[in-house]
Amino acid sequence: MTTGIGGEMDEAMMLRDAATRLFAGDCDWSDIEAMGLPLALLGEDQGGFGLDPVDALAIVRLAGATLVPWPVGETMVANAARAGAGQALLDGPATADDVPMLGGAIARSLLCAGALGRVLDLTIEHVNSREQFGRPLAKFQAVQHALAQLASEVAAASAAADHAAAAFARPADEAEIAVGVARVRIGEAVGIANGLAHQMHGAIGFTEEYQLHRYTTALWRWRDEYGGHPYWARKVGAAALAAGSAGYWPLVTAA
């Protein structure tokens, strides 16, 4: 493995490129294991890549963008928790019982960000290629406004997912608030973005041969798993109330 800051960046880029190619095909779990992705959050001495957690968790975003039907992120965070506790690593993909709430929420945040990016891409392609009254849909002002709103929600969700990924290495009490904030913002983005995307696609968005509904269905499911939007909103609200007027601003800036 290359060393130093530049070397770690090169390693992270090579891993993302390799994962992108893998996820683009019809990969199975043995392919994912062969690449070492279930151990991506571990240090080199533990059989991992020794990457910064944000770089390692970027793999989960790619899995969301391609709807990989395997629990890549869940297995990554479960193995990291097991390694930290001195336990044996998983032999195969993680199940729901293997994944702590916080780790699962972080994985779901990255999956949602990846899928939302793909929803935006599909919508841009659609409104530029579909015509009405002799003009592409993208030329209509109402569509342009809706597309701008969709893009802003996707950007906000992407930033929130980065926020959740960065919290992975923080102490659990600090990480919980940061992840809660991210999950609440991503939950809002999913609801708004899915509605806008289907509105701009019309009936074609629900047809079996078109991709959009597979992404939006996954997003609604991922939004509600590992706590869901209401659960994390209550967590963040309770922490803000407990902090009081003197502690609220430090809590917000730390999160």
Description:
This protein is mostly helical and 255 residues long. It folds into 2 domains: 1-99, no CATH class; 114-255, Butyryl-CoA Dehydrogenase, subunit A, domain 3, CATH 1.20.140. The protein has 9 helices and 2 strands. It has helices at 4-24, 29-34, 53-66, 72-84, 101-129, 141-166, 172-201, 212-224, 228-254, and strands at 131-132, 135-136. The protein has a two-stranded antiparallel sheet with strand order 1-2. Residues 1-5 have low confidence and may be disordered.
List the helices and strands and how they pair.
Layout: H1 4-24, H2 29-34, H3 53-66, H4 72-84, H5 101-129, E1 131-132, E2 135-136, H6 141-166, H7 172-201, H8 212-224, H9 228-254
> Largest sheet, order of strands side by side?
1-2
**Biggest beta-sheet profile:** 2 strands, antiparallel
The computed structural class is: mainly alpha
This entry's quaternary arrangement is single chain
CATH architecture of the largest domain: Up-down Bundle
CATH topology of the largest domain: Butyryl-CoA Dehydrogenase, subunit A, domain 3
Element pattern in H and E: HHHHHEEHHHH
CATH superfamily of the largest domain: Butyryl-CoA Dehydrogenase, subunit A, domain 3
CATH class assignment of the largest domain? Mainly Alpha
**How many structural domains does the protein architecture include?**
2
